[in-house]
Write a structure and sequence with these properties.
By secondary structure, the protein is an alpha/beta fold. Helix content is 36%, strand content 15%. Helix 3 runs parallel beside helix 5, helix 8 (177-185) runs antiparallel to helix 9 (197-221) and helix 13 packs parallel to helix 14. The model has no long low-confidence stretch (mean pLDDT 97). The structure holds beta-D-glucopyranose (BGC).
């Protein structure tokens, strides 16, 4: 085995204070596998991945990293790494194979076993109710574009709270609604592969309502709940100081960073920046503005990169386009995302500025780089330095008195990275996808030392 030469950092987890929450984040479809075992129903990701051309190498999450069978091994490894908080999501179609109606007790059993095993081993579960894997049966009825999703979602959330709320106290309603509506219902590059405004605008509105309704249900059914929801966010930098680029950047910011949090705070949609959002009105009913509001206990922000945005006349509705990192001569990850640590600091600052945001946790941050397995070791210095540099920025925010109460690495093991398949590896733990063997990377060794 190669002797790790872990670059020094100068900070330990203790420097962030006793109450700071340290954890790792995952999502059901990306890790569980067991896609049709024990009565699980199909999700939109099962369907989307089954169509040729949607995913890199036509890969899918049917087995993923087999967390369904290997959860004990993974949790014991987390424990050995001093990880105390584990964020995972529930698969809606494992619990309700048809999205509504009959409950699948085997699905409930799986999550009960998982939650109990976490607790027995000193790990606190942080549950995301929806991380993109809508039951296919509901997509057949229009999915997020159908207003009935509000009732479907409320029923599902109630079932989860009643089943697990005696032991799970930390809940996140949605994972990155901008990504699942934007990539899934506007660009068509994620499940369910829909394109255009007609699907996107109602999906946005219904997600905003579900975000708040879900929060209300958790609060009413779970004693001492800590209720949050999560948002993707990136610093947006105008390509130049030309007014047109500055305007383009403000539109991208409204869409990528503000669209979902602002209605929940009672600020409405950012229509003054992106006028096409006024069309959401068509899908609105009396009372929706009030019903979109919910006072979350915490907001989870998920940051990876920054975006540089340029005016472009041909891009509909926003006349703005992202300038790819690979075209900008900057350091990038395998996702072609710029490595830009100040982005996380600026996002902490941005979300701190909202009145009504009580607590902020970084619920995802991490990076995919090419990992080389050599003599049973992966010396992933790039990832390690990425994490250290981003954490320096989190510390800087904390030193300045900004709210930031936790940090979860994306992610624990390598997994299925959506449209990119298994190529980008984000894990602290390497997975040999053929044998499902887990190997701690240098970044994982460092994180362990950092937490110890
Ligand atoms: C998502 C994860 C995803 C990660 C890296 C986030 O957008 O919540 O599911 O794997 O970023 O792309």
């Amino acid at each position: 085995m190669i002797k790790d030469n872990l670059p020094s950092f100068g900070l330990t987890s203790k420097d962030f204070g006793e109450d700071f929450t340290w954890g790792v984040s995952t999502a059901a479809y990306q890790i569980e596998g067991a896609y049709n075992l024990h009565n699980k129903g199909a999700s939109i990701w099962d369907t989307f991945t089954s169509k040729k051309g949607n995913i890199h190498n036509n890969e899918h999450g049917q087995v993923a990293v087999d967390f369904y069978h290997k959860y004990k091994e993974d949790i014991l490894l987390m424990k050995a790494m001093y990880i105390k908080h584990f964020r995972f999501s529930l698969s809606w179609s494992r619990i309700l194979p048809n999205g509504i109606g009959a409950i699948n007790n085997e699905g409930i059993d799986f999550y009960n076993k998982l939650i109990n095993f976490c607790l027995e081993h000193g790990l606190t579960p942080w549950v995301t109710l929806y991380h993109w894997d809508l039951p296919e049966a509901l997509q057949q009825k229009g999915g997020w574009a159908n207003r009935e999703i509000i009732d479907w979602f409320k029923a599902y959330v109630s079932i989860c709270c009643k089943a697990f709320g005696d032991r799970v106290k930390n809940w996140m309603v949605l994972n990155e609604p901008m990504v699942f509506t934007g990539a899934g219902y506007y660009l068509g590059v994620h499940a369910p592969g829909k394109k255009g405004l007609k699907q996107f605008l109602p999906a946005v509105h219904h997600a905003v309502l579900c975000q708040a309704e879900g929060g209300r249900i958790v609060r009413s059914l779970v004693a001492n709940a800590n209720v949050g929801t999560t948002f993707s966010c990136s610093q947006i930098t105008p390509y130049s100081s030309k007014p047109k680029d500055i305007l383009a950047a403000s539109k991208a910011d409204a869409l990528l960073n503000r669209l979902f949090i602002e209605p929940s705070l009672g600020m409405g949609y950012p229509t003054e920046n992106v006028s096409v959002l006024k069309q959401i009105e068509k899908y609105s009913k009396p009372g929706d503005v009030e019903n979109s509001i919910f006072e979350f206990d915490f907001i989870g922000i998920q940051n990876y990169t920054r975006e540089v945005v340029k005016h472009n006349y041909f891009i509909p509705y926003i006349q703005a386009r992202i300038v790819k990192a690979s075209k900008r001569a900057v350091k990038t990850t395998l996702m072609d995302w710029e490595v830009y640590p100040p982005s996380i600091y600026n996002m902490i600052k941005k979300f701190n500025a909202y009145k009504g945001v009580h607590k902020i946790l970084i619920t995802e941050n991490g990076a995919a780089f090419t990992d080389t397995l050599l003599n049973n070791s992966v010396h992933d210095v790039d990832r390690l330095q990425y994490l250290q540099n981003y954490l320096q920025q989190v510390k800087k925010a904390q030193n300045e008195g900004l709210k930031v109460d936790g940090y979860f690495v994306w992610t624990f093991t390598d997994n299925f990275e959506w449209a990119e398949g298994y190529k980008p590896r984000f894990g602290l733990v390497y997975v040999d996808f053929k044998t499902q063997k887990r190997i701690l990377k240098s970044s994982g060794r460092w994180f362990k030392k950092f937490l110890s």
